[in-house]
Amino acid sequence: MANYQAPNSPVLARFIAPLTDAYSGSQRKYDCKALGDLDFLESGISRCVSAVTSGRDFLQQLADCVGKLFEVTLFFKALKSRRRLANLISVNLNVARLLRSRLADPFAEIGELSGFDIYAGDGHFHEAACHDPHKPKKPKPAKKKTNGERQKQAKKLQTGHFFILGMRDHHLRHYALAEPRPGGGNEHDMHVLKRKGAKTPEHIVSLSKISDLKGIEANEDGLTIKTMTTIDELFESLLLDDNFKVLRTVCRNISTQPIRNMATVGGNLTCRYTWTEMPAVMTGLEANMHFIDTTGQKNTLTAEDFYKNNAKTDKILTHVTIKRDKTASIVYRRVKKTAYVDIPLLSIIMKTSFKGKRFTNTKVSVNNCVAFAQRDNVLEDFLNTQDAREGLGQEALDHLNESIYDKRSSDYKKHMFRVSIKNAINELVEQQLTKK
Known about the structure:
Elements: H1 10-15, H2 18-24, H3 37-49, H4 55-66, H5 72-78, H6 82-102, E1 119-126, H7 147-153, E2 159-166, E3 172-177, H8 189-195, E4 216-218, E5 222-226, H9 231-236, H10 246-253, H11 257-262, H12 265-270, H13 278-284, E6 288-292, E7 298-302, H14 303-308, E8 316-323, E9 328-336, E10 344-355, E11 358-367, E12 374-375, H15 377-383, H16 392-396, H17 402-406, H18 411-433
Helix pairs in contact: 2-6
């Protein structure tokens, strides 16, 4: 192998140290005596972090400041080498593996993000080189151009690169080279994502065009809400009686009227945002969620099980069913996050069936808005041993699954949880004690 000369600068040596480990296991290595692979890799990194204005300027500074002298023609030929490109890609992948093994994942403790890669991306455009081609000529207009217009048309295309940073492994990688846009202009990052296959027409199914996924049906057994039913359609439905009436309250709290006109029940339920309104309510109402896959295979999950799995699915939600319960007493509490943006800080739904004054079959579903909806089994078990009486709301605060309410909660949020739980229980008690 060529005699690799480590950098004189301790900072640069420390900065590029992972290259040695990554290169040792890379592919397409070659013992080039004139310009070794490690020298080539190091020079590429130095070029990226330097403030030089051209490749020749870089080679001059590399010789003057670092003492590494590369023959100009050889260096620029090396930049075109397919073998070196393959080796560079292999080293880059090895660096990513090293980073994952040596650095902590800052998102590891957020269960909602498990199984997902997370990236931050951006594009970078810089002036074209002197040897880059000019923009494609436009059809000559009828009127005569001024000198300024001729200079503008002769302007060269900017070179654009898009990069993505892995938020789990801190690895920055090249994503795409910008392509010229018809009529001129720089390529937008969203266009790059579509071009690279993040979304293409063959991957997209417009559920809004499937009539079987729209509508609401009810009978003596229960309620069926199809996935493409809008929030406003559900709010306006005359079928929301018995234990379904709480859905009207929930729909009214979702965003603004223009959003409710477009947003769907299925979208709210399968959204990856943990603060959406419907999941806690469907869990509290013991709803079933019905899915279908690309082969036509159907699958049914309880809402509780779906959110226990962090709302992950590779199937399409077709509809939701809720059993009718004419004996259920239900209360719903919601606190918004700020006075200016109506996003929930927390929400709670309690459902119970009284036998005399005794709580039975109680369900307490909680949305703490930092994790998916879940039931408080500790509070449920306590209430199912109690009769409706004054002071029960205050006493119940000593029987909570604190891990639900304390998770990434401020003191204000913890206080509002306790106030909401206490008031919800007192409302249930009052309903039962005043019932004739």
